Amino acid sequence: MEFRDLKKQYQQLKPQMDAAIQQVLHDANFISGKQVVQLEEKLAEYVGVKHCITCGNGTDALSLVMMAWDIKEGDAVFVPDFTFFASAEVVSFEGATPVFVDVDERTFNLDPDQLEKAIAVVKQQGKLRPRAVVAVDLFGQPADYERIEAICKEHGLLLLEDGAQGFGGSIGERRACSFGDAATTSFFPAKPLGCYGDGGAVFTNDDQLDELLRSLRVHGKSPVSKYDNVRIGVNSRLDTLQAAVLGVKLDAFASYELEAVNRAAQMYSEYLGEATKTPVVPEGFGSSWAQYTILLKDEAQRQKVQHALKEQGIPTMVYYPKPMHLQGAFDQLEQPVACPVTESLCQRVVSLPMHPYLSEEDIRFVSNAVKAALEE
To answer: Which residue stretches of 28-95 are H helix?
Structure first.
């Protein structure tokens, strides 16, 4: 059994995928081909924003926004403590200071109450300038943007939606990657919408930010020529081959994959029942289920479940085993607020196989294995 079955997906999409790749090979326009422009237009339309700027990977997408916003030394950027390293790494890379904030145990996303507390503490200490918030759409579900956007507006903070796992999620009629002042996503192969390598994108309604990001991703070029460089930038472009792959996958994602993965999540929750804590999706929210993550009693129970499933050929993953504030790279930082929920989650979460091509038989098999392990 595959944790995320990209082989089965390819077999399903093989005719369209092979044709799209062959077209790129025929045209031999491997950098900034027409497929890149077409993809950006389709992505912007799907998300519901004016601009989509593709780039080399999801981390670069975050970094490009940090650069465009001139995040720098002395700035405080508030980041969830329960997330992938890149969400905070990009802050430090610009010389600024990530301030880690605890999450909501039900949704695994940034807790607005804890965000307000962290902002107040940083302001009281007076050592850093509060500048921005990075809110992460963990495991496919958007963060509580109604409250987070209000908090950012009250305190004059920029808001970046890290939608690396959230593409396809929603709150009401708004789709993930349409929140905040800008949003980013990753096209890493295992993401809800993934390519066959690395890729990323930034989304925004801000015309000036769009123009600046397009310059920054190609060595700070001017709109006139790539040989007229008006600022220091980076080299971070989405390959035409990856754009072609994503064009095919986006059609499948919008047509049936998102619906299928939600159906799989519903079946998991029904089969697992009360045996363990299953994911919570608040009313009005929609998830794209980058992961289906259950919450166990403690680390010992998690090890027991993982071992039992491994013996039956069922892969599992732990996202994430260590809080951000305990990562060695951030040893020198002073953590102004405690994050007990994150510390607990890191010992208790485990993710089960999840993708649009899971059969009901697969889900029943995994669920029964989990329940049997918990009953031993």
So the answer is: 34-47, 58-68, 86-93
CA distance 296 to 17: 39
DSSP-assigned beta bridge partners for residue 80:
101
- Angle formed at CA 29 by CA 27 and CA 35, multiple of 5 degrees: 90
Q: How far apart are CA 207 and CA 218, in angstroms?
A: 18
Spatial CB neighbours of 157, under 8 Å, sequence gap ≥ 6:
78, 119, 130, 131, 132, 133, 151
- Computed from CA positions of residues 308, 312, 313, 315, in that sequence, does the dihedral angle turn out positive or negative? negative
User: CB under 8 Å to 343, separation ≥6 — which residues?
Assistant: 323, 326
**Tokens representing residue 272 in the block:** 């697992």
Q: Provide the pLDDT for residue 270.
A: 97
Return the sign of the alpha-carbon dihedral for residues 87, 141, 104, 265.
Answer: negative
Exposure of 234 in the CB half-sphere (CA atoms within 13 A): 18
Q: Which two tokens stand for residue 339?
A: 């994050």
- Of 343, 322, 335, the closest CA to residue 117 belongs to 335
The SS3 of residue 239 is strand
- Structure tokens of 139? 């495991």
DSSP string, 321-340: SS-GGGSGGGTTS---S--H
Q: What is the pLDDT of residues 114-124, one digit of tens each?
A: 999 999 999 99
Q: What is the pLDDT of residues 283-303, one digit of tens each?
A: 999 999 999 999 999 999 999
Q: In what order do the strands lie in the sheet with 200-204?
A: 51-55, 200-204, 182-186, 158-162, 129-136, 75-80, 97-101
In whole numbers, what is the pLDDT of the chain averaged over residues? 97
Q: Give me the residues paired with residue 262 across strands.
A: none
pLDDT tens, residue by residue, 303-321: 999 999 999 999 999 999 9
Beta carbons of 186 and 180 less than 8 angstroms apart: no
In this structure, the strands spanning 158-162 and 182-186 are: parallel
- Where residue 226 falls among pLDDT bands split at 50, 70, 90? confident
What is this structure's pTM?
A: 0.97
